[in-house]
Design brief:
By secondary structure, the chain is an alpha/beta fold. The protein is built from nine helices and 13 strands. Helix 2 crosses helix 3. It is globular, with a radius of gyration of 24 Å. It binds adenosine-5'-triphosphate. Involved in beta-(1-->2)glucan export. Transmembrane domains (TMD) form a pore in the inner membrane and the ATP-binding domain (NBD) is responsible for energy generation. One of its GO terms (molecular function) is ATP binding.
Amino acid sequence: MTATIHIADVIKHYNKVEAVRGVSFDLAAGEMVALIGHNGAGKTTLMKMMLGLIRPTRGTIAVLGENPAAGEFSSRRQLGYLPENVAFDAALSGRETQTFYARLKREPVQEALALLDIVGLGDAAKRRVNTYSKGMRQRLGLAQALIGRPRVLLLDEPTTGLDPELRQTFYDVIQKLAAEGTTVLLSSHALTELEERAGRVIIMNRGLKVADGTLEELRRLARLPTRIRVKVANLPPAGRPAWLPATASYRRINGHIVEIDAAPNEKIELLRSATADGTAVQDLELIPPNLDELYAHFLRHAERPQ
Ligand SMILES: Nc1ncnc2c1ncn2[C@@H]1O[C@H](COP(=O)(O)OP(=O)(O)OP(=O)(O)O)[C@@H](O)[C@H]1O
């Protein structure tokens, strides 16, 4: 794998604040990676170092094979960035803003203007940015970040302020780019929407990387219980169902459903005993741990005294 982004043992101090404490990871072409963590975890700092806006205190950063903090960072043109708080000249229209950035990046203006349609701002292109809603400004920010078909796209909390439909459009656009080979790194607090979309998740806590992997890998590592919901006919109104092992933790959801927490190695045995003794199982649902639960698990783990 040739890494488009290479981060090795990176440390960043702002005076006494240790914002990033020895982080390493590589990102490849076509990967869509979510960077998650509480406020102050170091996500924005990492992105700013990838952009060359600030330098690491120690460690190595390479973006498309170059050091972004070096004087001649020719790969910058292949880098798209959507900052957490987009700010545009309110007196310009969307069209003028996009033209301005295209010229700045020395990219064809017509292609940059076509991006306004892609992010759904075609009809509002001639309106001044100060008449735009927050979601519209966010989409203008994305259109700006997409100028020149970047090979690396860094998005800092890109979906804040977007309604569900716009979020979908937003992810459609960046997923298409990733499919064409762009590396997409996006920081977010919206874990539920990332769950189905990010191929890989990096969890940060107080400047440290505490987990890194696909959802399946994180589930394997965390070994959190899977919830098994069994719908049974004739469930006795109270008491523990006879087929349930004495040690299993469970709850009743309503008159018919028992929800059991099953450790990864107990799943099959539990299903066997639920169906073995003639209990009329009417339905079955397996609910693996979601990203919220995994995130909470890895943070707990990181905070545990060593
Ligand atoms: N310019 C700065 N000077 C001093 N401290 C800073 C500076 N920028 C960030 N920090 C500190 O570095 C730590 C990491 O901040 P960073 O902005 O990278 O976090 P984040 O994960 O992006 O948070 P958020 O989710 O709130 O955007 C925080 O403790 C923050 O207060």
